[in-house]
Amino acid sequence: MNWSLLVPMLVALPLLGAAVTLVLGHHRRWQVGVSIATLTLTFVIAVVLLLVVDAGNPLAVSVAGWDLPFGIVLYVDRLAALLVAVSSVVLLAVLLFSVGQGAADGDEETPVSIFHPSYLILAAGIFDAFIAGDLFNLYVGFEILLVASYVLITLGSTESRIRTGTVYIVVSLVSSILFLSAIAMIYGALGTVNMAHIAERMTDLPDDVQLLLHLLLVLAFAIKAAVFPLSFWLPDSYPTAPAPVTAVFAGLLTKVGVYALIRTETQLFNDSDINMLLLIVALATMIVGILGAVAQAELKRILSFTLVSHVGYMVFGLAIATEAAVGATIYYMVHHIVVQTTLFLAVGLIERRAGSTSILKVKGLMAAAPLIAVLYFVPALNLGGLPPFSGFLGKYALFDAAAEQGTPLMYVLIVGGIVTSLLTLYALMRAWNLSFWREQEDSSETEARIAYLGGSPEAQQQSERRVIPRIMTTATAGMVVLSVGLTVFAGPLYAVCDRIGQSLLQPISLVELDDAEAQP
């Protein structure tokens, strides 16, 4: 069978599903069915392609019959297939969560007529970015997902969402302009935007030109990945969106930026070394991000700052630039996609049950909602890096790869990573203790101990408690099970990630994939 024929379906199916759900704008059940079927089928295709490319060579497809260097190339290797599969599961779980929320609240939070088409377009953009074989198609994937995200982040049209959505849009446009400028400069210098061709021809350029192009791409992708000091926009933008939108943004959107950084560092600029700069930036991202989380009193903002800090681990692994480190980075990336999404879904349940996400206001949930306590507690321990969870395994692998280098800066990064992990555990467990263990009637002494958080900014306020449909709890529980599965099946998953690390540092030219190339 010509497996390459499945590659374009990763993008075509969500776009087709978006068109169908747009036509079915007044038929909620049909929209839900189409969306679920689309993402499920995409997941199946991604798993099939992962098995195929893991056993052989990557697959390259020239869309519409246009050969290289003129055609649009879709490229699926182990990394692309793995991320599409994981993203499909996350998108599906968040979709089910949003279905429950929509059924309970009507169209107030997620207007169904526009949510499903926008959501599937977002999925198409994410998948297109993961399988893009050239920089311009990667840019198109970014723009597709960003256009959809503009709609999703402002759903409900509240004042806070419009304000923070505007900041998000402006920052995203600046990043896109930088990216497009870099593409134009690369094409002017090399005559191609195909990633394999760029890697082959980059060494012909002077070192200073390589460095300029390298830094411009890294700057554009660092904004999208929320790398410090370019992460200022994220903690204010994400918490104001509806719970399912915040969850999928936190889990996936920054990882598309990290993915672009991985491609850039491992396959395009092998001879242009900025690893020292990346190590310093990684340390700053980890420490500044987690200190921001410790200073917050609102659960969504705590998680948003931890999101920033843990992007630092991925930049850290990428800067080590060894096969073991890159493999560990991929494993940690998969872990973070799943666990961060799970935590935001759990906080969405807390918000509905308690009427707030402020740890200064939420009390006594252990007795009132013990299941929600478990659904928050397990991924919180995981993100904090407590053994034997996947967070610990990923961090240990990163630290081990750094220790093999043996330089003083590597040991500084290891210490910084350990401190970040401990502070993550502190911030998340403090929130858990105050929200779940604290009694409804607390002593003045307890209130005094948390008074220092009183001036912390809060996200969108919610005054009334809302019913929690079973499907919302089920979707969150499913994600918790998946996060535990990353630990139970860590061996096979890490083996795949290790093979990804080896292949990324030994890039295969698309020109050499004629036997695997198809022209649909």
Structure description:
The protein has a two-stranded antiparallel ribbon with strand order 1-2. The protein is mostly helical and 520 residues long. It has helices at 9-23, 28-55, 78-105, 112-131, 135-153, 159-190, 195-201, 207-225, 234-237, 243-268, 275-294, 299-320, 323-354, 365-368, 370-383, 390-405, 408-437, 444-449, 470-488, 490-504, and strands spanning 59-62, 73-76. The protein has 20 helices and 2 strands. It starts with 8 loop residues before the first helix and ends in a 16-residue tail after the last helix. α3 packs parallel to α13 and α13 crosses α20 (490-504).
Notable characteristics:
520 residues, mainly alpha, 20 helices
Brief write-up:
The chain is built from 20 helices and 2 strands.
Cα gyration radius (Å) = 22 Å
Q: Please state the overall shape, judged from the principal axes of the Cα atoms.
A: globular
Distance separating the two termini: 14 Å
Average pLDDT metric: 86
Helical content, roughly? over 70%
Q: How many β-strands, per DSSP?
A: 2
Q: Major beta sheet, specifics?
A: 2 strands, antiparallel
Question: Strand arrangement, largest sheet?
Answer: 1-2
What structural class results from the helix and strand content? Answer: mainly alpha
Low-confidence stretches: 510-520
H and E string: HHEEHHHHHHHHHHHHHHHHHH
Assembly classification: single chain
| Amount of beta strand | under 5%
